[in-house]
Amino acid sequence: MPPRSEEPRRDAEGSRRGSSRGGGQRSSPPRPAGERDVTPGLSGISDARAYTPRGRSVRESGAAAGTGRAEQRRTPRSSRSQDPFRPALQVLDGGRVTAGRAAGRAGGAARRDGGAARATVTRTVTDRTPRDEVPATAPRRRVTARDPRRGDRTPPRRPSRQRPRPPRLADPGRRLRLGTALTLALFVAVGVRLVVLQTVDTPAYADGGIADRITTVPLPAPRGAIYDRSGEAALAHSVEARYVYADPTRVKDIAATAATLSPLLGIPASELAEKMKPRKRINGVDSQFEYLARGVDIDRAKEITALKLPGIGTHRDERREVPGGDLAANLIGFTSPDMVGLEGLEARFDDLLHGEDGQRVFEIGLGDLAAPIPGGISRTTKAKPGSSLVLTIDRDLQYMVQRILSEQTQQVQGSTGAAVVLDARTGEVLAQASHPTYNAAKPFPSEPTDREDAATSFIVDPGSVHKPITFGAALQEGVITRDTSFPVANAIRKGDTWFRDTHQANGRRMSVAGMMAYSSNVGTIQIADKLGPDRLLDYQRRFGLGKPTGVGMPGEASGRLLPVQEWSGSSQGSVPIGHSVDATPLQMAAAYAAIANDGTYIQPHLVKETIAPNGTRTPGPAPETRQVLSPDNAAALRTIMEAVTTVDDATGLAAAVPGYRVAGKTGTGWRLVDGKKQPGEVASFIGMAPAEDPRYVIAVFVHSPSGGGGQISAPAFRDMMTFTLRHHRVPPSTEPAPTFTVFP
């Protein structure tokens, strides 16, 4: 393409070439008819189409090439006519169109001055080097426009800079980007929250509704049994039973349901209806489990299940049974319906007997769908059975001792009795009876005082049964011997109190055996004077007084010994004969067992062994032992004590056992409750047999508010000892008791 001239081509009148549909016709020389007009510069749409992008027409380029110059006429356009390509040409020419426009305006003025005179505008198109081939150091040529009238050059008008396009306020692209960013931020926030819910907060939300669906059913652990010393006869054991429960959320007619169950359970309908009422638990959830009855027979539970009462069900349970009823009831104690030990050995060894309960936890539907949910939460913790206790109690001996005590004490109205049978060689408690007693299978109708174990809670002022302790200490300390005798007055004064004898010696010389046989207060006080308070108190402690024996019974009383610094003048006379001393029947029986066991004290105990659920047997803890008297002194003391059951007119003749030598001592004291002396007296007898080699020690204490206990204790001892010796097949004594001289 030939290079474009520096200025736009214009006709003589200064107007630009091109089509002008609304303009006047151009002047041209006449042409013959039918001759085609081939003159360049004719106006029309073809001229517009013939423009090149560089601003020149094809025909103009051809004319310039042939003649070197082209002349065109243009009809002046109206002021409203515009060149359709002017904006493009202006941009491409860098503003030179403006200079051409100024020249056009100058030509127009000339036409107005010269009339029809026409000026010819020539435009020389020079060759231009492409921009990318122009050296960087080449100077840029300045283009000037020539004024046809003045013949000079005028400086071109500087191209006007386009103003920056103002930003569009409603830019759709910007809105799209902003909306996309907000949407992505929203999705990111939702995604993060979902991750937190699925990973961090999952347990909290997952467990949020479980409480409404979870049901817990306890699985009671079978409670261990309590056996006698043979390990076969159960004194108390558990049997399988059923408990009846209600789900208050499902019971439809409370009154009708309670009325139906009342005769079957033996519970008033009003009490059952109260348990069936809807209620809230501590956590605010509706209660779905309430016990209606415990320990129901299996057959009776089947009858209740067959009724298909809404909200009523049964489940495995256990019931504590005491086959003997009141047999050793004060010793064994009883449990609550929940199989928790409340009194006696049941309470003392509750942790051992109870075991560990299990439970079944599972999801259940609500309303009419109240059934375990398949595939839902279901956990079962098996119950661990409790261990069993094997006591040292002999069931048959316990029965006879308890029966004899009851028969004897019933002869005195309002009396309270206690009896203890000990194995002198081992310290085992073979029988421990109390009166009154109760039925351990149905304990609640009984009085609390009837349920006390008298052998360990019955605090007495022992009286004369304490004298063998004074005699034993004197023998061990060498104050007396078995053949000692000295004058005994009818009374002796200590402090402001006179102490008298019931069998008066009138100042005659009396043997220590005679003093024991007639229970001489004066003779015993005289021996204690030689012994001294400190040594007497020491031997009291050695014989086990002043502290609990630790036999295993809960709430065992400790008794009390009077410290020497608290002794008054009268204490010099009261303490040696068993007053101002607090003790229990079991403590006194243990002291006599030390005498029977060649002077060795053995702590009394009730537990022989324990049996684990797997059958493993563990012996009970070893009892505490200590030497109190030498065997010779213990034997001498036993001989002295035989005088009580053999000397004529002695105090214990009623306790003699035919065929056996018996050593023992009677006593008369009183009962103490909260440190206060109670009306009446406490008559007691403690003895051992066979005296030459004692096997058993039996202590009998009877408190009778109206008196007469002395007529009960010795005969009761005789009957109990007779049965004990025969029950254990102890052969009779081969030698008779020695002959004693009371007044040498």
How would you characterize this protein structure?
The protein is built from 23 helices and 25 strands. The strands form seven sheets. Strands 4, 5, 6, 7, 10, 19 and 20 form a seven-stranded mixed beta sheet that branches. Strands 11, 12, 13, 22, 23, 24 and 25 form a seven-stranded antiparallel beta sheet that branches. Strands 3-8-9 form a three-stranded antiparallel beta sheet. It starts with 44 loop residues before the first helix and ends in a 17-residue tail after the last helix. With 744 residues, it is of the alpha+beta class. Helix content is 31%, strand content 18%.
What's the gist of this structure?
31% of the residues lie in helices and 18% in strands. Residues 1-81 and 106-138 have low confidence and may be disordered.
Q: Strands, helices and their partners?
A:
Elements: H1 45-49, H2 58-67, H3 86-93, H4 96-114, E1 145-146, E2 153-154, H5 172-199, H6 202-206, H7 210-213, E3 214-219, E4 226-227, E5 234-246, H8 254-265, H9 269-276, E6 290-296, H10 298-306, E7 312-321, H11 329-332, H12 344-348, H13 350-354, E8 358-363, E9 378-381, E10 388-391, H14 395-409, E11 416-423, E12 429-435, H15 454-457, E13 460-461, H16 467-476, E14 485-487, E15 491-494, E16 497-500, E17 509-511, H17 512-517, H18 521-531, H19 533-542, H20 571-574, H21 585-596, E18 600-602, E19 607-611, E20 617-619, E21 625-627, H22 631-646, E22 663-673, E23 676-677, E24 681-689, E25 696-704, H23 710-727
Parallel strand pairs: 4-10
Antiparallel strand pairs: 1-2, 3-8, 4-5, 5-6, 5-7, 8-9, 10-19, 11-12, 11-25, 13-22, 14-17, 15-16, 18-21, 19-20, 22-23, 22-24, 24-25
